[in-house]
Design a protein that fits this description.
Elements lengths: L1 H21 L5 E12 L5 E5 L8 E10 L9 E5 L4 E3 L12 E4 L12 E5 L5 E5 L7 E5 L9 E10 L1
Antiparallel strand pairs: 1-2, 1-3, 3-10, 4-9, 5-10, 6-9, 7-8
Length: 163
């Protein structure tokens, strides 16, 4: 009896393992790259290595996600930070149908469409609504409206100015 119970458990484990191995699921692989953007004599842009950047340099961050799994992915968010010592450059985030940028001023806790409006308390106690300063932007996020199919990739970018 003991031997047949052990064999049954082993067979059940093998069946569950095999089922899990063949289960379809999305697998997102993301990468983020940075390039220093310079303007040449003909007013064209050139992307260079961002290994060393200096004050007043412009850096473009590119996020690329690929679905290398075996099933369609939904609810995909691409999030890029605005690094300390830099300022987001307005209207540089990829903005295409189905992939609209949103912005955070609180390290990704809440998200806003552009322009980000903040409430500022005046000395007299009243509250004024005004457009957030670009220096307040901490993150940029894109939420895919559709799905990311198997083998498909999505790429977005945004730019910052080095302080």
């Amino acid at each position: 009896m003991r031997r047949s119970l052990s064999a049954a458990i082993l067979l059940l484990f093998a069946a569950v393992s095999a089922g899990a191995a063949f289960a379809q699921s999305p697998e997102l692989k993301g990468e983020m790259s940075a390039a220093k953007i310079v303007v040449d004599e003909d007013k064209g842009e050139i992307a260079l290595s961002a290994e060393k950047v200096y004050p007043n340099d412009m850096v473009e961050y590119t996020l690329k996600y690929t679905n290398s799994g075996s099933a369609t992915a939904s609810g995909v968010d691409l999030i890029g930070p605005v690094p300390a010592g830099t300022v987001y450059i307005e209207e540089t985030a990829t903005d295409i149908p189905g992939l609209k940028p949103m912005y955070s001023i609180d390290q990704g806790k809440t998200w806003y469409k552009a322009p980000v409006i903040v409430e500022v308390a005046r000395k007299d106690g009243t509250v004024e609504k005004k457009k957030a300063d670009p220096e307040m932007i901490t993150h940029v996020r894109w939420s895919m409206a559709g799905n990311l199919d198997v083998g498909e990739e999505i790429m977005v970018s945004y730019r910052v100015h080095v302080k």
